[in-house]
């Protein structure tokens, strides 16, 4: 059985630069229905065995299931590492196999050392659906001398889930109802449906619900209207401006998700140069006297010890340079900001200004914007650039500390340099002149940012729609065969690839005027290639039709599992509407006179393995999938249906006590009442679909 590995995001516990994972579950969709098996595991090692002379280990994880093995990255010199990597395997139909998670200490010269393992019974997981907690690492039974009490523990959250996505027509009533609610906005005598969703959504799933709603309304062209409705509802229940949008409400999470979905290219253009400079220079930066490391400075023979004051002064100069460069980039970026983001901030700015018109609250409208732009977008990206795809790897301890201090400065500017923020960390005082200047520049920037007329907004949106948006881009290695006949070498040539909504193009460099391309409509499959084919486990193949109608295959090598799966996911989603996708493929290559995978001699015959063109990652930077978003929203609403009914009855009772009544005639039904009918219809449709499709195709996913 072929294993399919999902996106892997590493988050090591180094320094202070770690951030919240932005990953979402994997999904699979086949023949009008969607089947998903996920095993999510947030894994944090503690007290691992120390195998190296430095008193630590270089641990990595090896996951085994149904004869397939996948490995995580190596975390150097740590007994308390943290991974955030995802491994996906096709679920064995019999489900008798066990999932084994092993921890090893990597060694460059000698043999790797075994550190312990955790074994999961898939049959048991199918029954209970979820496991979470700390799991003690166990020794290998073949090595009884290992003291299992000293192997450490592993924190896991394991979940197995099946989903069924129905054809689009089934979701139209739900989508139309939600869109109608957003277009109408709050009406007197009516209970807003969005209010019910907000008040019955728990903190644990609010982020997921927010991003699903944002993607759905983006697809419907109503993202600005949806967010504006949330702004109004949030302001109606806010009396104290200092707490506005500071909680993790549905409004806050939705705006945060909207920025990540719609503004990532903008974010990269603003932060990228400064972030890269920090990583490249690797300067020692520290302002906190309690953390300053005193080191020797000077040339050979003239060493002297640098004083604490000198270290702080030098650090201050470095941070001021980074911060000044970043603020200058932000100030120049008004026209670069996407039109829908500018229009949304204009709505927010106006709503807050109307709600808090007093002169004493003159900064609140600016802080409302920066609470999202600075505190929930710029600052987290600076602190954890890998999680925002600004860097390929997490920062080392020194760079991570620099990024953290820079992020703190951005937060202070976002808070408009209040007395409370200054008093919190007084050792940030050396940056005060730059911060104060930054506040003034930030206000000027926001004033220009929200100064967008309706006509300008429409013109900008029209211009954006005419542009071919880049879905994914970056360098890959393409296999080049030498001569004709069988493949005799594994030579790969580095080219720069760019995936748009129309084609996959490639050239020598990003700026090359001459390039080649594969039209997306001609792609028939995007799949992995067996490791033995090229001696590398990060190779994918794109099967496509050339201009003459002949089938061709391009073999592309990625640098890591993460990149491989991100490219596969993006390609599969970009080709989601292709009607001639293959049902089977060969995971090997045709070498000599036969396929390396199944030894068939017919080069153009049916493949020996089924394609997985519906297996994709689901995350904030993926192309939109309206049916999937509708299904995920339906599943959530179904789970909180009883809570929504109780809340609805409570609000209706309040209305009656206040002398307000509402007709129960069907044509006058409010949003919540109609929603309960829609949910019932969808639930019935799912029940019929489950009877018609008894066989389930599941995936088991382990997130480390």
Automatic annotation (TrEMBL):
Residues 1-51 are annotated as: Disordered. The keyword Cell division does not apply. SUPFAM superfamilies: C2 domain (Calcium/lipid-binding domain, CaLB), GTPase activation domain, GAP, PH domain-like. Residues 21-135 form the C2 domain. One of its GO terms (biological process) is intracellular signal transduction. Residues 25-51 have a biased composition (Basic and acidic residues). The keyword Heme does not apply. SMART domains: BTK, C2, PH, RasGAP. Residues 205-415 form the Ras-GAP domain. PANTHER family: RAS GTPASE-ACTIVATING PROTEIN 4-RELATED (PTHR10194:SF4), RAS GTPASE-ACTIVATING PROTEINS (PTHR10194). GO terms for molecular function: GTPase activator activity; phospholipid binding; zinc ion binding. CDD domains: PH_CAPRI (cd13372), RasGAP_RASA4 (cd05395). This is Ras GTPase-activating protein 4-like.
């Amino acid at each position: 059985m072929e294993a399919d590995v999902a996106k892997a995001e590493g988050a090591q516990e180094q320094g202070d630069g770690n951030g919240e994972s932005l990953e979402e579950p994997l999904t699979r969709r086949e023949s009008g229905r969607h089947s998903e098996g996920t095993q999510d595991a947030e894994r944090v090692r503690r007290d691992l065995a120390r195998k190296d002379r430095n008193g630590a280990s270089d641990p990595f994880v090896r996951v085994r299931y149904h004869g397939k093995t996948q490995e995580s990255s190596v975390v150097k010199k740590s007994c308390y590492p943290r991974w955030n990597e995802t491994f996906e395997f096709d679920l064995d139909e019999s489900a008798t196999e066990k999932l084994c998670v092993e921890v090893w200490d990597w060694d460059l010269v000698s043999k790797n050392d075994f550190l312990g393992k955790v074994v999961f019974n898939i049959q048991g997981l199918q029954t209970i659906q979820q496991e979470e907690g700390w799991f003690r690492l166990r020794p290998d039974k073949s090595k009884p001398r290992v003291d299992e009490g000293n192997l450490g523990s592993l924190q896991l959250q394991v979940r197995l889930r099946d989903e069924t996505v129905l054809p689009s027509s089934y979701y139209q009533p739900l989508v139309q109802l939600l869109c109608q609610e957003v277009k109408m906005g709050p009406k007197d005598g009516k209970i807003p449906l969005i209010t019910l969703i907000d008040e019955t959504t728990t903190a644990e799933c609010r982020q997921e619900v927010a991003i699903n709603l944002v993607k759905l309304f983006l697809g419907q062209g109503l993202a600005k209207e949806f967010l504006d409705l949330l702004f109004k509802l949030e302001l109606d229940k806010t009396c104290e401006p200092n707490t506005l949008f500071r909680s993790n409400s549905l409004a806050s999470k939705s705006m945060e998700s909207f920025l990540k979905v719609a503004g990532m290219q903008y974010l990269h253009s603003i932060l990228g140069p400064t972030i890269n400079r920090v990583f490249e220079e690797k300067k020692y930066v520290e302002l906190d006297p309690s953390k300053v490391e005193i080191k020797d400075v000077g040339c050979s023979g003239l060493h002297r010890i640098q004083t604490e004051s000198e270290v702080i002064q030098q650090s201050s100069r470095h941070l001021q340079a980074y911060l000044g460069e970043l603020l200058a980039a932000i100030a120049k970026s008004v026209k670069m900001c996407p039109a829908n983001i500018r229009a949304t901030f204009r709505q927010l700015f106006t709503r807050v200004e109307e709600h808090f018109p007093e002169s004493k609250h003159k900064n609140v409208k600016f802080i409302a914007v920066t609470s999202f732009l600075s505190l929930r977008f710029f600052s987290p990206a600076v602190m954890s650039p890998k999680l925002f795809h600004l860097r390929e790897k997490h920062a080392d301890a020194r760079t991570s500390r620099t990024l953290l201090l820079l992020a703190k400065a951005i937060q202070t500017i976002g808070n408009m340099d209040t007395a409370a923020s200054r008093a919190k960390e007084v050792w940030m005082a050396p940056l005060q002149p730059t911060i104060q200047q930054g506040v003034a520049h930030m206000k000027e920037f926001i004033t220009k940012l929200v100064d967008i007329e309706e006509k300008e907004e429409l013109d900008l949106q029209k211009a954006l729609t005419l542009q071919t948006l880049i879905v994914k881009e970056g360098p890959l290695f393409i296999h080049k065969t030498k001569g004709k006949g069988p493949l005799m070498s594994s030579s790969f040539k580095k080219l720069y690839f760019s995936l748009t909504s129309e084609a996959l193009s490639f050239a020598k460099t990003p700026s090359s005027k001459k390039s080649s391309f594969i039209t997306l409509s001609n792609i028939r499959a995007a799949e992995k290639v067996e490791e033995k084919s090229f001696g590398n486990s990060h190779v994918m193949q794109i099967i496509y039709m050339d201009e003459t109608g002949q089938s061709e295959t391009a073999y592309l090598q990625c640098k890591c599992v993460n990149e491989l799966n991100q490219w596969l996911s993006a390609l599969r989603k970009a080709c989601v509407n292709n009607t001639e996708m293959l049902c089977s493929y060969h995971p090997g290559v045709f070498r000599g006179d036969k396929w390396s995978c199944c030894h068939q001699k017919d080069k153009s015959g049916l493949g020996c393995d089924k394609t997985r063109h519906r297996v994709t990652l689901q995350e904030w930077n993926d192309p939109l999938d309206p049916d999937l978003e509708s299904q995920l929203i339906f599943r959530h609403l179904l789970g909180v249906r009883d809570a929504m009914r109780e809340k609805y009855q409570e609000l209706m009772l309040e209305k009656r006590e206040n002398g307000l009544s509402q007709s129960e005639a069907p044509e006058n039904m409010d949003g919540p009442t109609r929603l309960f009918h829609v949910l019932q219809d969808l639930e019935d449709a799912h029940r019929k679909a489950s009877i018609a499709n008894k066989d389930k195709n599941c995936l088991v996913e382990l997130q480390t």
